[in-house]
Write a structure and sequence with these properties.
Blueprint: E1 3-8, H1 16-24, E2 29-32, E3 41-45, E4 48-52, E5 65-68, E6 73-74, H2 76-88, E7 97-99, E8 103-104, H3 107-120, H4 132-140, H5 153-174, H6 182-190, H7 193-196, E9 200-201, H8 203-212, E10 217-220, H9 244-249, E11 258-266, E12 269-271, H10 284-292, E13 305-307, E14 309-310, H11 311-321, E15 325-329, E16 339-348, E17 351-353, H12 360-365, E18 366-374, H13 391-404, E19 408-412, E20 420-422
Parallel strand pairs: 1-10, 1-11, 2-5, 2-10, 5-7, 6-8, 7-9, 11-15, 14-16, 15-19
Antiparallel strand pairs: 3-4, 12-13, 16-17, 16-18, 19-20
The structure holds guanosine-5'-diphosphate, 6-O-phosphoryl inosine monophosphate and magnesium ion.
Length: 428
């Protein structure tokens, strides 16, 4: 019966991996519906730390069926490397299902992603360089190669030939790179066929039947609302739809079957890569958040840009995604401050905006309007119930809930699986 969407409310790295892992024990399927190995989810289980990129975080939970949906872009080399890494650590990965309609990242996509960024110079987006944008561009241009194509060598060759005809002009004439041959791409794909074959299925059908049978399906978003190609800070976004609508198109589960939309939101804000970020702190406070929150990218190792909580961004996420619950993460990181500023609105050239400005120009000019909330000194990482938190931490949670347009149902106080305060069940 229930299908639950779990997604990021800000610019990514909110702690979606941990939240998925915590819910994993109570769900039957975890489906990744967008993005690819641009994602980086760190999940800590006891003394073990796992970094996942392409695989759904649910793969770490025994009994869960992890699914890579049709909305994902797959680098097969990365897929098998990640599976090997988990197998070597004793994680059972045998239940993984992969959609035959997911698109494949080819070597030319990765090359073009990196070289295009280099050519952009100062105007670069700061992509992860994993070929994500060029692969989605080919999907929309109808020259993409899909998982199912590798099972028909003739079709595969035709499609790669068609794609390379354009790509090699671009690579050689514009970017001054060497041409890529059809054979090298086809051979690489074919090299994975036998291992891939048993995983590939009509995942939309499998999920529909699972829901008919009363199973619980968790749809796990990569990236986040502000990185959505339609609803984020375009053009400083990723090339997929991490928002709730993307969960439907990226999995084949219709909106009428979705019961709950859980948004993971950090108690402050971070962003990796270029683009506007109104509450960014370029001073010692930003450095302190980065240090205390260990804010370095899981995928690229880049230091994350850090700033205060932005309630305009949270309210926007609530509205665009129809959020039923927030999971507030990393509250523990904010300890030891006398007062904690929170952005409640923007000042755009003298005009107050309580909602996200409509234009890119206005958003670039947005200055945060702060309210200061009292902080706390105590280490809260061992707290497991709301009542045991310092009164000011409870008030911080309440204030964020009041200004963010949806209830906060859980609070993270550390990276560990058990370091979570549950306020109301996300599954009932
Ligand atoms: P994701 O991309 O949304 O899955 O998030 P990342 O894994 O990239 O980044 C979140 C980081 O914060 C990871 O290193 C997590 O282990 C860690 N984390 C998650 N929740 C909490 C929390 O409540 N407190 C602290 N201190 N760390 C957390
Ligand atoms: P998770 O799932 C944070 C950012 C990149 C860049 C922009 C476009 O871990 O939250 P891309 O390679 O996707 O074309 O890059 O999007 N980005 C992320 N930032 N967390 C992520 O994933 C991200 N995935 C992409 O830094 O600014
Ligand atoms: Mg991440």
């Amino acid at each position: 019966m229930p299908a639950i969407v779990l997604l990021g409310a800000q610019w990514g790295d909110e702690g979606k991996g941990k939240a998925t892992d915590v819910l994993g024990a109570s769900v039957d399927y975890v489906v990744k519906y967008n993005g690819g190995n641009n994602a980086g989810h760190t999940v800590v289980i006891g003394d073990e730390k796992y970094a996942l990129h392409l695989l759904p975080s649910g793969i770490l939970t025994p009994g869960v069926v992890p699914v890579i949906g049709n909305g994902v872009v797959i680098d097969l080399g990365v897929l098998f490397e990640e599976l090997d890494g988990l197998d070597a650590r004793g994680v059972d990965t045998s239940r993984l299902l992969v959609s035959g309609s997911a698109h494949l990242i080819a070597p030319y996509h990765t090359v073009i992603d990196k070289v295009a960024e280099r050519f952009l110079g100062k105007a670069r987006l700061g992509t992860t360089g994993r070929g994500i944008g060029p692969t989605y561009a080919d999907k929309i241009s109808r020259v993409g190669v899909r998982v199912q194509d590798v099972f028909d060598e003739k079709i595969l060759r035709q499609k790669v030939e068609g794609a390379l005809e354009q790509k090699n002009h671009l690579l050689v004439k514009v970017y001054n790179r060497r041409a890529i041959t059809v054979d090298e791409v086809v051979d690489e794909f074919l090299g994975h066929v036998e291992r891939l074959r048993p995983m590939v299925t009509d995942t939309a059908l499998v999920l529909s039947r699972a829901l008919d049978e009363g199973r619980t399906v968790l749809l796990e978003g990569g990236q986040a609302t502000q990185l959505d190609v339609d609803h984020g800070t375009y053009p400083f976004v990723t090339s997929s739809n991490p928002t709730a609508g993307g969960a439907c198109t990226g999995s084949g589960i219709p909106p009428t079957r979705i019961d709950r939309v859980v948004a993971v939101v950090k108690a402050y804000t971070t962003r990796v890569g270029s683009g506007p970020f109104p509450t960014e702190l370029l001073d010692d406070e930003g450095e302190r958040l980065r240090r205390d929150g260990a804010e370095f990218g899981t995928t690229t190792g880049r230091p994350r840009r850090c700033g205060w909580y932005d309630a305009v961004v949270a309210r926007y996420a609530a509205r665009i995604n129809g959020v039923t619950d927030f999971v507030l993460t990393k509250l523990d990181v904010l300890g030891g401050r006398e007062r904690i500023p929170v952005c409640v609105a923007y000042d755009v050239d003298g005009t107050r905006h309580d909602e996200m400005p409509m234009t890119q120009t206005d958003f670039h000019h947005a200055r945060p309007v702060y309210e200061e909330l009292p902080g706390w000194d105590e280490d809260i990482s061992g707290v497991r119930s709301l009542e045991d938190l310092p009164k000011t931490a409870q008030e911080y949670i309440q204030a964020l809930e009041d200004m963010s347009a949806a209830p906060i149902s859980a609070v993270g106080v550390g990276p560990g699986r058990d370091q979570t305060i549950e306020i109301r069940s996300l599954l009932a």
